[in-house]
Write a structure and sequence with these properties.
Layout: H1 5-18, E1 25-30, E2 37-42, E3 48-53, H2 59-78, E4 99-103, E5 106-110, E6 116-119, H3 131-137
Antiparallel strand pairs: 1-2, 2-3, 4-5, 5-6
Helix pairs in contact: 1-2
Length: 138
Amino acid sequence: MGMTAADALGPVLADLAATGAPIPAIRISRSPDTGLWAVKLTARDGTGQGFTLDPSEPPEHLIARASDQVQEWMFDQLGRTAPTNWPPCPLHPEGHPLNAKAADGMAVWMCPSGAVIAEVGNLAATVPPGNEASESAG
């Protein structure tokens, strides 16, 4: 059995929790016509964003795509109250967020310079907990 949509979302949700960022409500369904997973992320205020995942993609691509889409959701959430640089690049914390990419068989958070910072799901070691949550609360 392959990776599920929940499996693909698990690592980025761990990164949200590790950095103190808001966690969306998630609804997943599968299209009987295309076989694609439809994922809906919803904030506490009811705003949401949807995207699809193709279960035929390799796991690292699924995780990177799910992470990219959750990051877009975070940009929308933080854009109302705080800088939209989640997750912040530890090499350039005021400059830009990290990018989710599939590289060498893993989904990673990467600086736009090309430096791999952490595997998706392991941000706790590179981004201090509460970094975004404290900014978005103030």
